[in-house]
Amino acid sequence: MRAAFATSFNAEEPLAALAVGERPEPGHPESDWVTVRVRASSLNHHDLWSLRGVGLPAERLPMILGCDAAGTDPDGNDVVVYPVVADPQDPRGVSILSEHHQGTLAERVAVPRANLVPKPAELSFAEAACLPTAWLTAYRMLTACGRVDEAAAVLVQGAGGGVATAAVVLGVALGKRVYATSRSADKRDRIAALGATAVEPGARLPERVDVVIETVGAATFEHSLKSAAPGARIVVAGATAGHEAVVNLRRVFAMRLEIVGTSMGTPAELSELLELCAARGIRPVVDRVVPFSRVTEAFDRLASGAAFGKVVVDHDG
Questions:
Q1: CA 317, CA 270: separation in Å to the nearest integer?
Q2: pLDDT tops 90 at residue 281
Q3: Coil, helix or strand at residue 178
Q4: CA 169, 170, 173: angle at the middle one, nearest 5?
Q5: How far apart are the first and last CA of the chain?
Q6: Residue 141 has what DSSP assignment?
Q7: Other C-beta atoms within 10 Å of 10: how many?
Q8: What CA–CA distance (Å, rounded) separates 130 from 42?
Q9: pLDDT at residue 266 above 90?
């Protein structure tokens, strides 16, 4: 079957480690695993980190990339693949598809049957394939971790990427006042079109916020602290601009701030997210849909940093 996979690592030029070609059909390590025909998948920065050799040991190469997918199960049902698999070999107790088990950027992928979530008819395969990683992370950051139902205002740092853009859309849909930062004037215009108030990084906000969505890291963390209202939750799920932030602990305890780390979510939360999108007409922000025959272009787009929203691969193309 055709697939996009890592054959080596290249920390400086990750796309040089990307291969596209034929790979064996997926195996079933346990009896409860099934094979899904992939109709669409979406890219994540996790794929680029894998090509750099981060989180993927050399002995697991070649490794099919991809965490996200929507497709059809053996019974003909349209499903979304939940990408987190129990993994006793991993110190986290779990791994994500393409770390230990082969990923979703292939014609077919094998997963535990329990990892299949019904795809609502209202969502296309391309839209549904955006949700399991970035959108699920944003949903959990806002709900379970950020307790956004108690909030009036939300700050999203570094909007434009998958998680941050999802947080903007979901925050607005949930009726919150959303502020979002971006260094790009073009992206700020697009953020504003989504219903948020777009500001430059570090700008003083007109109010303190109850929830901060933080995926940038060291470059924005001081601003996140200063923008937080008393009792606010700063939820961290990434550090694209540095993982060693300076934290003013006096502000943390004086303002009674909560700093919460998270990633991904649960199958139940993915089901909730799918139902929310279907019921409220919420749709993922898709930068572009690329046929699998041009999958390298999708990786180029992601690596360029110019994408606004998700880059999707159409496996029927």
A1: 26
A2: yes
A3: strand
A4: 90
A5: 14
A6: I
A7: 14
A8: 6
A9: yes
Q: Is there a contact between 242 and 210 (Cβ–Cβ < 8 Å)? A: no
Residue written as tokens 């082969």? 102
Residue ranges and CATH numbers for the domains of the chain are: 2-130+284-314 (3.90.180.10), 133-261 (3.90.180.10)
Which tokens go with 230? 């008393």
Please state whether the predicted TM-score (pTM) of the whole model is above 0.90: yes
pLDDT value at 253 more than 80 = yes
| Strand bridging mode 258-261 / 228-236 | parallel
Buried b (16+ CB within 10 A) or exposed e, 87-123: eeeeeeeebbbbbbbbbbbbbbbbbbeebbbebbeeb
- Centroid of chain to Cα 202: 24
Q: What percent of the chain has pLDDT over 70?
A: 100
Q: What one-letter code names the amino acid at 102?
A: Q
Q: Distance between CA atoms of 6 and 39, rounded to whole angstroms?
A: 21
Residues 6+ apart with CB under 8 A from 253: none
Confidence class for position 240, pLDDT limits 50, 70, 90: confident
